Amino acid sequence: MQQAVEDVFDGIELRVRDDSISALDLIGRSHFDGFIIDCDGVERGQEIIAAARNSRSNRKSVIFTIADGKTSAAAAMELGSNFVLEKPLDVGRLSTYFQSSIRQMEAEHRRYFRFELALDAEVIRRDGTTISAQILN
User: Fold this and answer.
1) What is the pTM of this model?
2) Measuring CA to CA, which of 32, 58, 85, 122 is 20 to 30 A from 6?
Protein backbone atom coordinates (compact mmCIF):
# COMPACT_ATOMS: atom_id res chain seq x y z
CA MET A 1 0.00 0.00 0.00
CA GLN A 2 2.82 2.42 0.84
CA GLN A 3 4.31 1.99 -2.64
CA ALA A 4 0.97 2.84 -4.25
CA VAL A 5 0.71 6.01 -2.16
CA GLU A 6 4.29 6.98 -3.04
CA ASP A 7 3.55 6.45 -6.73
CA VAL A 8 0.46 8.70 -6.66
CA PHE A 9 2.17 11.39 -4.58
CA ASP A 10 5.38 11.22 -6.62
CA GLY A 11 7.56 14.30 -6.11
CA ILE A 12 5.89 15.25 -2.84
CA GLU A 13 7.70 14.88 0.46
CA LEU A 14 5.96 12.21 2.53
CA ARG A 15 6.63 11.71 6.23
CA VAL A 16 5.58 8.19 7.11
CA ARG A 17 4.82 7.12 10.68
CA ASP A 18 4.14 3.49 11.57
CA ASP A 19 2.73 4.13 15.02
CA SER A 20 0.05 6.40 16.38
CA ILE A 21 2.16 7.95 19.15
CA SER A 22 4.74 9.41 16.76
CA ALA A 23 1.98 10.46 14.33
CA LEU A 24 0.08 12.28 17.07
CA ASP A 25 3.30 13.95 18.22
CA LEU A 26 4.11 15.10 14.68
CA ILE A 27 0.58 16.47 14.18
CA GLY A 28 0.94 18.47 17.37
CA ARG A 29 4.28 19.97 16.37
CA SER A 30 4.03 20.59 12.61
CA HIS A 31 1.78 21.88 9.86
CA PHE A 32 0.96 19.70 6.86
CA ASP A 33 -1.04 20.53 3.75
CA GLY A 34 -2.47 17.00 3.71
CA PHE A 35 -2.59 13.66 5.51
CA ILE A 36 -3.01 10.06 4.43
CA ILE A 37 -4.19 8.11 7.45
CA ASP A 38 -4.63 4.33 7.55
CA CYS A 39 -7.52 4.57 9.95
CA ASP A 40 -8.00 0.86 10.66
CA GLY A 41 -4.46 -0.37 10.03
CA VAL A 42 -2.90 1.63 12.85
CA GLU A 43 -3.88 1.55 16.50
CA ARG A 44 -5.82 4.71 17.43
CA GLY A 45 -6.24 5.59 13.75
CA GLN A 46 -9.53 7.36 14.34
CA GLU A 47 -7.87 9.45 17.04
CA ILE A 48 -5.22 10.52 14.53
CA ILE A 49 -7.90 11.83 12.15
CA ALA A 50 -9.60 13.73 14.97
CA ALA A 51 -6.26 15.11 16.22
CA ALA A 52 -5.34 16.39 12.76
CA ARG A 53 -8.72 18.03 12.29
CA ASN A 54 -8.71 19.55 15.78
CA SER A 55 -5.13 20.82 15.80
CA ARG A 56 -4.75 24.54 15.35
CA SER A 57 -2.19 24.26 12.57
CA ASN A 58 -3.80 21.38 10.63
CA ARG A 59 -7.53 21.97 10.98
CA LYS A 60 -7.90 22.94 7.30
CA SER A 61 -5.51 20.33 5.90
CA VAL A 62 -6.79 17.76 3.41
CA ILE A 63 -7.24 14.32 4.98
CA PHE A 64 -7.28 11.11 2.94
CA THR A 65 -8.44 8.15 5.05
CA ILE A 66 -7.84 4.53 4.17
CA ALA A 67 -10.21 2.09 5.91
CA ASP A 68 -10.59 -1.67 5.82
CA GLY A 69 -14.19 -1.96 6.98
CA LYS A 70 -13.87 -1.38 10.72
CA THR A 71 -14.51 2.33 10.14
CA SER A 72 -17.27 3.24 7.71
CA ALA A 73 -16.86 6.01 5.16
CA ALA A 74 -19.56 8.00 6.98
CA ALA A 75 -17.74 7.67 10.32
CA ALA A 76 -14.44 8.75 8.75
CA MET A 77 -16.16 11.78 7.19
CA GLU A 78 -17.69 12.67 10.57
CA LEU A 79 -14.21 12.59 12.10
CA GLY A 80 -13.06 15.08 9.48
CA SER A 81 -11.81 13.15 6.46
CA ASN A 82 -12.13 14.80 3.08
CA PHE A 83 -11.71 11.55 1.13
CA VAL A 84 -12.19 7.92 2.18
CA LEU A 85 -10.74 4.94 0.35
CA GLU A 86 -11.20 1.28 1.20
CA LYS A 87 -8.67 -1.52 1.19
CA PRO A 88 -7.51 -2.92 -1.11
CA LEU A 89 -6.41 0.50 -2.22
CA ASP A 90 -7.64 1.55 -5.67
CA VAL A 91 -4.70 3.57 -7.05
CA GLY A 92 -6.87 5.12 -9.75
CA ARG A 93 -9.35 6.42 -7.21
CA LEU A 94 -6.55 7.73 -4.94
CA SER A 95 -5.03 9.50 -7.94
CA THR A 96 -8.40 11.06 -8.83
CA TYR A 97 -8.92 12.22 -5.24
CA PHE A 98 -5.41 13.62 -5.14
CA GLN A 99 -5.87 15.54 -8.40
CA SER A 100 -9.13 17.02 -7.15
CA SER A 101 -7.54 18.13 -3.87
CA ILE A 102 -4.41 19.81 -5.26
CA ARG A 103 -5.96 23.29 -5.33
CA GLN A 104 -7.15 22.97 -1.73
CA MET A 105 -3.71 21.80 -0.58
CA GLU A 106 -2.02 24.65 -2.47
CA ALA A 107 -4.39 27.15 -0.86
CA GLU A 108 -3.66 25.66 2.56
CA HIS A 109 0.07 25.92 1.87
CA ARG A 110 -0.24 29.59 0.89
CA ARG A 111 -2.45 30.31 3.91
CA TYR A 112 -0.06 28.77 6.39
CA PHE A 113 3.40 29.26 4.92
CA ARG A 114 5.12 32.43 6.09
CA PHE A 115 8.32 34.14 5.10
CA GLU A 116 10.53 35.52 7.83
CA LEU A 117 10.39 39.27 7.81
CA ALA A 118 12.60 41.91 9.42
CA LEU A 119 11.93 45.59 8.71
CA ASP A 120 13.47 48.69 10.21
CA ALA A 121 10.88 51.08 11.61
CA GLU A 122 10.74 54.42 13.29
CA VAL A 123 8.18 55.28 15.93
CA ILE A 124 7.39 58.97 16.26
CA ARG A 125 6.14 59.96 19.68
CA ARG A 126 3.67 62.81 20.31
CA ASP A 127 6.45 65.05 21.52
CA GLY A 128 8.24 64.61 18.18
CA THR A 129 11.04 62.34 19.35
CA THR A 130 11.70 59.21 17.35
CA ILE A 131 12.51 55.73 18.49
CA SER A 132 14.22 53.26 16.19
CA ALA A 133 12.61 49.86 16.10
CA GLN A 134 12.48 46.64 14.12
CA ILE A 135 9.38 44.79 12.97
CA LEU A 136 9.78 41.00 13.05
CA ASN A 137 7.44 38.53 11.33
Assistant:
1) 0.73
2) 58
